[in-house]
Amino acid sequence: MNLADVLPRELVCVPLAATNKYDAITELVDLMAAKGRADRRDELLGAVMEREAQRTTGIGRGFAVPHAKTDAVRSMVIALGKTSVPIDFESIDGKPVLLIALLASPSNSTQEHMQALTTLSRLIMNEKAYQGLVDAPDAESLYHIAVESSKGR
């Protein structure tokens, strides 16, 4: 999956203003809603928070992928943010998070949703891509690195 297909440039934010995981999730949901990518903001936020309550989406290496399948979105979409300070996401490795990719998919898109999660996981395991994302000084750089690193995967 090429992230360019589901990660619009206008949904990349550097830096996020949030200093905790719930505010970070809310900030990315609000960005999706403000840019017309989520029809029902409160429903999307509720679905993502419900999923987060089940098990942390902090997958390690300073990366979190909060996500939900909900009909609050018409098509799969990702919002990507980089925090200004590391935040506690209760990650599986116990380390704070710098990078957050919020994934929202319609309820009936299980296969595509899983494919997107896999693509995001591979992105963070690619050392060159990971370091580029961590070092990205602005939204344009973060977008470019994420999209270019996902091509051909």
Write out key terms for the chains shown.
153 residues, alpha/beta, 5 helices, globular
Task: Describe the structure in your own words.
With 153 residues, the chain is α/β, with parallel strands linked by helices. The protein has one domain: Mannitol-specific EII, Chain A (3-Layer(aba) Sandwich). The chain has helices spanning 21-34, 41-54, 110-125, 127-135, 139-150; strands spanning 12-16, 58-60, 63-64, 67-69, 77-87, 97-105. It is globular. The chain starts with 11 loop residues before the first strand and ends with a helix. The model has no long low-confidence stretch (mean pLDDT 96).
Cα-atom radius of gyration: 14 Å
Q: Let me know the largest β-sheet.
A: 6 strands, mixed
CATH class (first level) name: Alpha Beta
Task: Assign the CATH topology.
Answer: Mannitol-specific EII, Chain A
Q: Under the CATH scheme, which architecture would be assigned?
A: 3-Layer(aba) Sandwich
Secondary-structure map with pairings?
Elements: E1 12-16, H1 21-34, H2 41-54, E2 58-60, E3 63-64, E4 67-69, E5 77-87, E6 97-105, H3 110-125, H4 127-135, H5 139-150
Parallel strand pairs: 1-5, 3-6, 4-6
Antiparallel strand pairs: 2-3, 5-6
